[in-house]
Amino acid sequence: MEDLRSRVAPFDGVPPLGLARLVELGQIRRFAFGKHLTVQGETADMMYVIAKGRVSVERSHPEFTAPVLLGELGPGAIVGPEGLLDGESHSATVTALEDTDAIEFTGLVLSVTILEFPKVATSLLRTLSRRLRTTDALAEAVLLRHARPKSPNGEQVARP
């Protein structure tokens, strides 16, 4: 229990009894290498806390020839809370890079936990804010890579 608490920032405000209940309500899931925890576009009806292993996070788009790797996550990382919070589908595909154990939480478990321990909501917002900033930086890098170069006097130069 304490291990989960120390590795998952949104749970740092949950007392040991609450953590015990969370783990009791959650379900341990094992994902073999290459298996998906979430699939972009599918209904988001659960979130995961990575207990052991590593996963990749990728996002596809019809204009891209291949999915874009957004990052890799390991023990203590939270996967999929966005869909539970906003009722939308998963925004990315998360795939096990090695055999991975994760604790699965439904929306109801997350809602009850937030009601009982409001600090969890604050910590989740902090986590989501960091992800948004990371996404902003990634979008800026992609835009800069595809922007047309400017001449020394500030005029855009045609690409060869």
Give your account of this protein's structure.
The chain is of the alpha+beta class. The chain has one domain: Jelly Rolls. It has five helices and eight strands; from the N terminus they run ααββββββαββαα. The protein has helices spanning 2-7, 16-25, 81-86, 107-116, 119-146; strands spanning 27-31, 36-38, 46-52, 55-59, 68-73, 78-79, 93-96, 100-106. The strands form two sheets. The chain has a four-stranded antiparallel beta sheet. The model has no long low-confidence stretch (mean pLDDT 81).
Our Rg estimate from Cα atoms comes to 19 Å
Helix vs. strand class: alpha+beta
Number of domains: 1
CATH superfamily: Jelly Rolls
Indicate the CATH architecture: Sandwich
**The top level CATH class name:** Mainly Beta
The fraction of residues assigned to DSSP E strands is 15-25%
Mean pLDDT: 81
Number of helices: 5
Task: Provide the spatial order of strands within the biggest beta sheet.
Answer: 1-8-3-6
Largest sheet: 4 strands, antiparallel
Q: How are helices and strands ordered from N to C?
A: HHEEEEEEHEEHH
Q: Span from first to last CA?
A: 59 Å
Which percent bin holds the helix content? 25-40%
Number of strands: 8
Please specify the SSE layout and strand pairing.
Elements: H1 2-7, H2 16-25, E1 27-31, E2 36-38, E3 46-52, E4 55-59, E5 68-73, E6 78-79, H3 81-86, E7 93-96, E8 100-106, H4 107-116, H5 119-146
Antiparallel strand pairs: 1-8, 2-7, 3-6, 3-8, 4-5, 4-7
